[in-house]
Design a protein that fits this description.
single chain, Rossmann fold, 2 domains, six-stranded mixed beta sheet, four-stranded antiparallel beta sheet, 9 helices, 10 strands, globular
Length: 262
Amino acid sequence: MSTPLIEVADLAMRFPARGRDDGHLALNGATMTLAPGELVVVLGANGCGKSTMLRCIAGMLRPTGGEVRVEGQAISGLSGRTLTEARMALGMIFQSAHLVKRRSVVANVLAGTLGRHRSLGIALGKLPHQETPHAMACLDEVGLAHFAPQRAGTLSGGQAQRVSVARALAQRPRALLADEPVASLDPDAAEELMTLLRRVAHQDGLGVLCVLHQPELARRFADRILGMQAGRIIFNHEPRHVRDNEVSALYVKRDASQRLAA
């Protein structure tokens, strides 16, 4: 395997206490790596810490322990412009596409390039239209270049999610972090999106870290599957080595006092 693109070491995240409790320990020593050109899927029950781990990697949350390194640079303690620049290497895809529905499809993709530009016009909300050829190339990558002038609000759910992938690609990232990207899609659209993510990894050489709730999709599309429980990675296997009982054990209900924050 090549040098890791992302390294997560002993990551811990405790959310602030409320009232008399001690807070919620969402991550408890999570450790993993992601290499260029591989699609890694994280499986686990609601509340096991999957989404929290992705947000810590993306710099959206600051962990309370451990370290995240991206291309060898520790990012967990960064802030301000330094963090913004480091985060450009990581494209984020959410369960909802979060498109601006009244704007055109290409304008939504152009929004992914904003981190590279500093000007008064950008600060006032203008888009960097000099990036339009790149935005169109990203739309072509996801098979939607012909929708460029169309309002984003007219797209289907699957099309909107593919535009969100194009927007993330417009950052020119080294990795994509996808948080349950197919949760709201029908089976055909989910299949299409997972095929796209695998192609982005294998053909374009990006690392793709994807949280899923569908073990069958993980087995079919992932290069590796990580099983997460109680804030820890408890197995890390190629799909052919993942046993059914290991997957089933991830979804065993725990006593409410042991549940972790999502």
